[in-house]
Design goal:
alpha/beta, 12-stranded mixed sheet
Length: 333
C-alpha cells in the first residue's frame, strides 16, 4: 500500500468512521447518542475503567410533547473489518426443550418498574425471527487466519456494561415522581461491516476438507442473536454493582406502587406476575437464572442492515407499549 494511503486504512480499522455512521443512523431516528460509555471492571486485583463505543437513548412516542410512554437504551460496540474478513457462527444444535435461547432475553424489559401494561408477546414474536448462535469466529479469506478474539471482546464489553445500565433504569423509575415512571427497555448490539454467516446443518470436519468455497459451508444472514455464558468473573462483577440493592426496598413508595400494579396484572390461571421487589432481590443475589435473563443474549448486526434492524425494534416496542387511549397521559419531567 502507498505510504500516503496507509492513514485511510488505519483510520477505518480504528472503527471511528463506523461508530460515526452508526451514531448518525441512531440520531436520524431521534436517539440521543453519546460515545465511550464508561464503567468500572476488575482487571486482576485492581478496578479499571472500560468503555463501550456508543450509548443511545430513545423515548416513545415522538408525536407529542406531553408524555413519555417508554424508553429504549441501546449500548453498542462497533467492529470495522478489512475486506475479505467474514464472521461465521455455530447455530444452536440443541433440541428445542434443551436450548438456552429464551424469547424475551435479548430485548431486556424492565417494564415491571412502572404502572403501565405492555404487550410482551410482540417482543417474543420479534425475537423469534432471529437466528440463534452459540459461538463465532472470524475468517480472513485473504490471509487464511481464523480467530475469535474481536467477537469475544466486543460481546464482553457489552455484557460488563449492562449491569450498570439496568441499575440506572430501575433507580430512575424508583426515585422519580410515580407519574413519570415508564417501561424501560435495554438492548446490546455488536455492529460490524463483516458479512455474517450461520453454519449449515450437516457441517462437519469432512465438509470443511472437501469444500471448494467457504459459502458451501454457511448461509449469509443480516443479523443474529449470540449466546454467551455467565462466568465467575462476571458474577463477581455483578455482585459488586448490586450489593445492598434490595435494602429497604419494601419501604420505597414507588416500588410498592409497582408491586401492587403488577400483582393486579397476574396471570388469571397460574397467579404469577413480574414482581419488581423480587427482581431487586434476585439482582442483588446474582442468581444464575437472573443473570441469564439479562446478560446471556446479545444482538449482532451487519452494518448494511442496521437501519432496518433499528426500525423494526422501534416499531415493535412502540406497539408493545402503546397505552390504552383512555389512560391518563404521563407528563414528561
Amino acid at each position: 500500500m502507498n505510504e500516503s494511503k496507509k492513514w485511510k486504512s488505519r483510520l477505518l480499522s480504528s472503527s471511528l468512521p463506523l461508530e460515526y455512521e452508526v451514531a448518525k443512523i441512531l440520531t436520524d431516528r431521534d436517539f440521543s447518542v453519546s460515545f465511550d460509555y464508561s464503567y468500572y471492571r476488575k482487571d486482576g486485583d485492581q478496578k479499571k475503567e472500560f468503555s463501550t463505543d456508543l450509548k443511545g437513548l430513545h423515548f416513545f412516542p415522538l408525536d407529542t410533547e406531553d408524555r413519555i410512554d417508554a424508553s429504549l437504551t441501546l449500548v453498542a460496540e462497533c467492529k470495522y473489518r478489512e475486506e475479505g474478513k467474514k464472521w461465521i457462527f455455530l447455530p444452536d444444535i440443541n433440541k428445542r426443550e434443551f436450548s438456552d435461547f429464551t424469547l424475551g432475553y435479548t430485548i431486556k424489559s424492565l417494564a415491571e418498574f412502572s404502572t403501565a401494561k405492555t404487550k410482551k408477546d410482540l417482543i417474543y414474536s420479534f425475537e423469534e425471527g432471529f437466528e440463534f448462535a452459540l459461538k463465532g469466529v472470524e475468517i480472513n479469506l485473504t490471509s487464511g487466519e481464523v480467530f475469535d478474539k474481536d467477537i469475544r471482546h466486543g460481546i464482553a464489553q457489552l455484557k460488563f456494561a449492562l449491569p450498570y445500565l439496568i441499575k440506572n433504569i430501575i433507580e430512575d423509575n424508583t426515585y422519580c415522581h410515580l407519574v413519570d415512571a415508564h417501561p424501560g427497555y435495554l438492548i446490546s448490539v455488536l455492529v460490524t461491516n463483516a458479512d455474517l454467516y450461520i453454519l449449515n446443518e450437516g457441517f462437519s470436519i469432512e465438509r470443511v476438507k472437501e469444500c471448494e468455497d467457504f459459502e458451501e459451508l454457511a448461509r449469509l444472514v443480516p443479523y443474529l442473536v449470540c449466546h454467551t455464558e455467565i462466568g465467575p468473573d462476571f458474577t463477581d462483577h455483578h455482585k459488586g454493582i448490586f450489593r445492598g440493592f434490595s435494602r429497604n426496598s419494601e419501604e420505597i413508595e414507588n416500588l410498592q406502587a409497582f408491586e401492587a400494579f403488577q400483582k393486579s396484572q397476574r396471570h388469571k390461571t397460574y397467579q404469577v406476575y413480574s414482581s419488581p421487589l423480587r427482581c431487586c432481590h434476585d439482582l442483588e443475589q446474582s442468581y444464575l437464572s437472573t443473570m441469564k435473563q439479562y446478560y446471556s443474549q446479545h444482538f449482532i448486526c451487519n452494518f448494511k442492515h442496521f437501519p432496518e434492524f433499528i426500525d423494526t425494534i422501534l416499531k415493535t416496542l412502540s406497539e408493545a407499549t402503546k397505552p390504552d387511549q383512555k389512560k391518563t397521559r404521563i407528563k414528561k419531567k
